[in-house]
Design a protein that fits this description.
single chain, mainly alpha, about 80% helix, globular
Length: about 400
């Protein structure tokens, strides 16, 4: 099929997917207290359990779904994920107890895998000279959806209640299912054959050091994201002082990096296409690391907000570069497995991040979280530089 059609459909799909997720997740504590009768004293405990239950299951299942995609079909696995996610959102809207919500989130973790399958499909259909642009657009759309979702979800929750958000998310994911069913063809290289099966089964991370390293880096990049997210509202409140609209203020500040990232992600993709994806990865890691360290310095909200915007300019280049490197160092018949492993690695980072962030904030103070984030990214950039010869030998 035409790669432009594929990109258009998957971009729409990603926007719905990201917006559906983020118009619900930030407001889960509100849902637990207002709809599921959780006491305010217990809401943090239940929120943590609800969040982590999905991450743990998806970390286990993502490589399994990815490996199945290479033998059964990547489009089929994308259809499976979108349909089951639609069901999970619907179930989330009808639960009556927090325990039921945990089970729904576990089912959601089991159903997940839509994003890695869409990455795998796009990397097969994209012309080699357009790979960076396509992955940059997809990453930018994912970021844009993460901005639209909380704003839209906050309005819905205020007017209609949280259950309506779940139902609309279910409708959006079912629309994704229909778009995939009617407009996306199975990538030709996913046709089952004995050669394909042997290639998939014989793949080993021990024999693919570049892939192994990128997955390792992905854990820490995702960990950086979740180091910051849980403390953002508290830190903004500390800088802003007493405010009646602290939730709105924190949401606006947090979204600044999303706005800048959505714009610059395609530009990073083009830069990587021209200069090499290892060059774009090193540049994005280094500049984002420096920006994070600088973000620990402001003592006023406006300067902190400006630093948040700056972080998004550079951080948005990291994931498209990693995705492109993985796409260029793997065959079409192993892309489902690889991007499934990537998603699993990111889920591991999402579990570790909040725990480590809470420890740093408790023992050292919240501003040290930003210093830690910067140091992690700069350390990764140094390691990537040392692996320059491996990346060159892979043609990246």
């Amino acid at each position: 099929m035409n790669w432009k059609t594929c990109l258009a459909v998957l971009t729409c799909n990603i926007l719905f997917m990201a917006a559906s997720y983020t118009m619900i997740m930030p407001f889960l504590p509100v849902y637990l207290t207002s709809e599921l009768d959780v006491q305010a004293a217990d809401v943090h405990l239940w929120s943590g359990a609800v969040f982590s239950s999905s991450f743990l299951i998806s970390a286990v299942m993502a490589p399994i779904w990815g490996k199945m995609a290479d033998t059964k079909g990547k489009r089929l696995m994308a259809l499976r994920a979108s349909f089951l996610l639609a069901v999970s959102y619907f179930l989330g809207g009808i639960v009556t107890t927090p325990l039921q919500l945990i089970f729904v989130r576990m089912f959601q973790g089991f159903a997940s895998g839509l994003w890695p399958m869409e990455l795998a499909i796009m990397t097969i259909y994209a012309p080699p000279q357009k790979l960076g642009l396509c992955l940059g657009i997809m990453q930018g759309t994912l970021t844009a959806g993460s901005i639209v979702g909380p704003l839209f979800g906050g309005v819905l929750a205020g007017i209609f209640g949280m259950r309506v958000s779940f139902y609309l998310a279910a409708i959006a994911l079912f629309i994704n299912f229909l778009l995939l069913f009617f407009f996306i063809s199975e990538p030709p290289h996913a046709v089952i054959s004995e050669e394909t099966r042997n290639e998939t089964e014989s793949f080993s991370l021990r024999k693919a050091p570049v892939v192994r390293d990128m997955l390792f880096f992905a854990v820490f990049v995702q960990m950086v994201i979740f180091l910051v997210q849980p403390v953002m509202a508290t830190y903004v409140e500390e800088l802003a002082g007493h405010s009646d609209n602290i939730v709105l203020t924190a949401g606006l500040v947090f979204s600044l990096s999303g706005f800048s990232g959505a714009v610059t992600a395609p530009l990073w993709g083009r830069f990587g296409q021209r200069k090499g994806f290892y060059t774009s990865l090193i540049a994005a890691l280094t500049t984002a690391g420096i920006a994070f360290v600088m973000q620990s310095l402001p003592r006023t909200l406006y300067l902190f907000a400006a630093a948040q915007f700056t972080v998004g300019l550079f951080f948005s280049g990291i994931n498209p570069s990693i995705n492109a490197i993985l796409a260029k160092t793997t065959t079409d018949n192993t892309k489902g497995h690889i991007f499934g492993l990537l998603f699993s690695a990111q889920q591991i980072g999402a579990v570790i991040g909040p725990i480590l962030g809470a420890a740093i904030a408790t023992w050292l103070g919240m501003r040290y979280i930003y210093i830690a984030c910067g140091c992690i990214l700069i350390a990764i950039s140094i390691i990537v530089r040392r692996h320059k010869s491996d990346l060159h030998s892979a043609g990246i």
